[in-house]
Amino acid sequence: MVDLSVEICGLKFRNPILPAAGPTVRDGDALVKAADGGAGGLVAKTVSVSPAHVPRPNMVKVKDSILNAELWSDLPLEQWLRFEYAKAKKKGLPLIASVGYKADEIRAVAPKVKAAGVDALELSTQHLGRDLELVTEATKAAKEVVDIPVFVKLSPDAFDVVQFARAVEGAGADGIVAINALGLGLAIDIENTMPMLGSVSGHGWLSGPAIKSLAVRCVADVCRAVKIPVIGVGGISNERDAVEFIMAGASAVQLSTAAIIRGYKIYGLIADGMAKFMRAKGYNSIADFKGIALRHLPEQPFRTTSKPPEIIASRCTGCGLCEQYCVYEAAKVVRKIARIDPVKCYGCGMCVSVCPTRAVRF
Ligand SMILES: Cc1cc2nc3c(=O)[nH]c(=O)nc-3n(C[C@H](O)[C@H](O)[C@H](O)COP(=O)(O)O)c2cc1C
To answer: How far apart are CA 76 and CA 268, in angstroms?
Structure first.
């Protein structure tokens, strides 16, 4: 029997799959749907002193990812305080309220949000740019005015995410959430030559699979730099992605884009998938594989000579993907089994990454 539950800063989550701030947690009803969809805990849409004036249109699908210009909640803070958090609280899961942005705004909003019964705060730094001082001041302000855990959500636009992580830990943050959507991007409708988003200059932030590797790298770097727990977010769309973040050191994960595209059931599906993965690998708890990959991230010089991968013939289905993806023309399927020409092989690793049966490996 595997145990998916995690405890972070005293908050007990039934599983480590949480929603990220965004339209799928835009009000109390949406938060209830996330809970019913199987989320391990709840994170609400960012609120600030006044409602956002959200440009329309504000979301465009770019391949499997999303470019958005949604800003923070367009609902009045008072509505969140009186109705929306209370609705979500009825589900009995830990509820994290996302608040923004500058120290004076945090000082005004955080105590009210805490009084509304939320269990922790997440500070969104998305609109503070690369200003480390603004981020640390906001963190200190939150810690001054509330006694519940304060997570600081880092933006990948921060010049050096590790520097920001160390600074917010020093400013008293209880945990870090990494990362927010990546900006700024632009999508143009070539049929009418117009920007797809209605924001200033059509600019928006990128989320979804396109930013996953960036997010995993940030999480791994941050986890090696700080002692406080880190929640990973960015491009998670299945259990394997979620496991990858946890192996990079995350204590839990959040997702938004995948829930926008596939609906509220995604949280439970990923949690179930993770339990299945854990059973197959013999992991009993999240702690069994949390941060397990960090020890393999080399600091020493790398190999610059080719070492061709081997083919496990019993696993090879002859599908030909290795051949299709081999830009060096070293992989060939011969009589339904892949073969690697060691003279042509550059050792790039692409075939290893595309083989669906792990028949090609280093
Ligand atoms: C439409 C949309 C709205 C978002 N709104 C917020 C927000 O209000 N506050 C915030 O901190 N992050 C916000 N985000 C960022 C997400 O919480 C998340 O950090 C980012 O999308 C990366 O995760 P994903 O790839 O799973 O979507 C938003 C993302 C999207 C796509």
So the answer is: 30
Q: Is the CB of 235 under 6 A from ligand 1?
A: yes
Q: What pTM value is reported for the model?
A: 0.97
pLDDT, tens digit, 9 for 90 and up, residues 258-314: 999 999 999 999 999 999 999 999 999 999 999 999 999 987 778 899 999 999 999
Same domain, 347 and 282: no
What residue owns the CA closest to ligand 1's atom 18? 180
Q: Is 136 in the pocket of ligand 1 (CB under 6 A)?
A: no
Extract the tokens encoding 88: 């979500």
Q: Give the pLDDT confidence of 100-136 residue by residue, as tens digits.
A: 999 999 999 999 999 999 999 999 999 998 899 999 9
The range of the structural domain enclosing residue 318 comes to 310-361
Token duo for residue 130: 């690369």
63, 184, 199, 207, best to mutate for ligand 1 pocket (most atoms within 8 Å of CB):
207
| Total tally of structural domains belonging to the chain | 2
The token pair that represents 138 in the structure block: 């906001």
Q: Is the CB of 206 under 6 A from ligand 1?
A: no
Distance 288 CA to ligand 1 centre (A): 29
Q: Is the CB of 155 under 6 A from ligand 1?
A: no
Taking the C-alpha atoms of residue 315 and residue 227, their distance in angstroms, rounded to an integer, is 41
Do residues 115 and 252 both lie within one domain? yes
Q: Do 287 and 317 belong together in one domain?
A: no
Domain limit, last residue, from 296, 320, 339: 296
Exposure string (b/e) for 51-86, b if CB count within 10 Å is 16 or more? bbebbeebbbeeeebbbbbbbbbebebeebbeebbe
| Cα 59 to middle of ligand 1, angstroms | 11
**Average pLDDT for 323-349:** 97
CA-45 nearest atom, ligand 1: 8
